Amino acid sequence: MFIKTEQNKTIPHWEYEMIPAQLLRVKVSNKGKHIAPIFCTSDEDASLADNMIKVFEESCETRERKALLVNKIGLLESEYGDYKLVRGLFTLLERRCKFVKNREFIKNEIGSHGPIVEPCILRQKLFEKSSAYDFALTTLKRHEIIQSVASDLGIDRQDVANEMWSDLDENLVLEYFDRITPTALLAWYNLALMQTLMFSCTALQFVLRGGSSWKGVLRHVKRVGLMYNIRKEFEQISSKDDRYYDENIVCSLDGPLSIFKMTDLYGTAIAKVLPYVISAESWSLEAWIIRNYLSVGRKIYEFHISKENAPPLIGLPDHIDSQENNSPDYFDSAVEEKFALKFEQFRSGWTLIREPDPIIVKSDKAFIPDFMFERYGRRIYLEIVGFWTDEYIKRKIEKITRICPENKDGKIDIFIALDNNYYITSKYKNLEKDLLSRLRSSVQDGHLILYKNGQVPLKPILSYLKSIDQEMIRKFATAAGRDLVADIDRLTTDNNQQNDTKYDSGIVSINTLAEKYNIPSDSVLLALQSREAGLNVHNKSYVIVGTYLIPRSKILEIQESLNFISSFTDAVLLFRKYKVPESCHVDLISKLGYDIIWRGIDSTNASLEKRKE
């Protein structure tokens, strides 16, 4: 069971955070093998939550100082006798508050409003005055120094005394409180307990049944850069009439205590995944928790929970969940977003697909790369790795080598991009180099990319895609070459084709031919160039100009007329008369042996000059 937040009141991601570890309330089973948080489910807990919310609301209405608010919560703590619970709820409610300095105008001695004087300036003036006069060792001396500073600043003496410490935390006033219902607060607290407990886990595994929401959860796992491993399981379901199998997705995560460095950052990332897990249609969770004791040292406990036996938990708002799953511009991380935007700017002709269908590995394990590049029926994958350890990369290598080969080298066509700053297992560089060497041997040459500062370099990927482009262009040119050339010869010599609007005046568009044969325009051009190489000038029925084929007879007519033209503008008028497309005017001038002499940016001043042989 979980509670959705209000449709118009979005709880931002930063609110899905742990409570302090010292406030974690847990219980251990009699046999000492299992551990579980002490969740809030009773009417007494609901009454406490309601009273605390009312205290915050009253403090906000009266703009009380934070110190007074803390004192009132302290009275509730004494009344209920469970300081961990009260302080845990206070931590969550405090995150919904906005505390500010008391910004009222300070009145001077004649009653008019003077300028606001910052507390730090007041303290500086007071300490300077005290140092110049004498230290304020008596009450009388203190009043004298305060009065002197007040006179210098033109404000009231009492205001100096009141404002000098107004920027301290306990003197801030509660300006805004984002109200929450007692039910939602307890559900949020229950989730926070689970998140805090996960900070001490060595491993976490959750199962999403039915396969309907697992992709959204995995998207967030990848977004925060966690080390994960997923597989599919099929559960046999029996009914009165027949049996069928339901598909389960099992995701295993390495816990923060399984690594040596950046445990706080990694633990926070795991905590942020839980709201997505508990918002799924059907889920269960299992974790292995480490607890330290002075008497017996470290002990490992198991923690189990599922949707069926879970207390009320706060989940994702409906509109947030829908937005993240359906938005075409939504990315899992800033690294992915930067990469996708830069890749699209190059206009390579390849389609970039984010989160393609899973690649199924033997033993029903699944591998979901971050991106797929697709063209000509070819698929090249990209996996971007954030956090990584020795064991995680070993599992990644095992998966890659077990995927069915998709190319002639017997290796899957995939790029692996590793964050060079997120290796978090060993401090020994030799181990890291050996691991990278093994990973490099599992993929094609040049397909392992190390990146820093959140920027995946594009050069190796674009170079590889371009090599495939060249290979496919040659392949298509060879396959369609004979039929293509025969078709072009017919089009450029058939007088009946003169009235066809596609080939007006015998001029043929290379792009139109590419669409007709469903091949790249570069393949058409390559096929034509291959044919031209075996012919002399007089046997060529057409001339390639830009992206067009112009009949050689028309070229000769234009060349004869161009001998009497010296202006670029007149040449353009001549080309229009012969219905030569504007996009190839400059190329045609060059083909006919002329250079354009520019005299400024105005084309009417440009002239033609015959090139010397």
Oligomer: single chain
Poorly predicted runs are: 1-15, 104-113, 236-245, 319-329, 495-503
- Biggest β-sheet: strands ordered side by side in the sheet: 10-9-6-8-7-14-13
Can you give the helix content as a percent range? Answer: 40-55%
The amount of beta strand, in percent, is 15-25%
Structural class of the secondary structure composition?
A: alpha+beta
Mean pLDDT: 76
How much is the radius of gyration in Å?
37 Å
Main sheet overview = 7 strands, antiparallel
Q: Domains counted in the coordinates: how many?
A: 3
Write down the overall geometry. extended
How many strands appear in the DSSP assignment? 23
> How far do the termini sit from each other?
86 Å
Number of helices: 20
What does this structure look like?
This protein has 613 residues and is α+β, with helices and mostly antiparallel strands. It folds into 3 domains: 2-97 and 178-320, no CATH class; 332-456, Trna Endonuclease, Chain: A, domain 1 (3-Layer(aba) Sandwich); 467-610, no CATH class. The chain contains 20 helices and 23 strands. The strands form 7 sheets. A 7-stranded antiparallel sheet has the order 10-9-6-8-7-14-13. Strands 12-15-16-17-18 form a 5-stranded mixed sheet, covered by helices on one side. Strand 13 and strand 14 form a beta hairpin. Helix 13 packs parallel to helix 14 (429-442) and helix 16 packs across helix 17. It is extended, with a radius of gyration of 37 Å. Residues 1-15, 104-113, 236-245, 319-329 and 495-503 have low confidence and may be disordered.
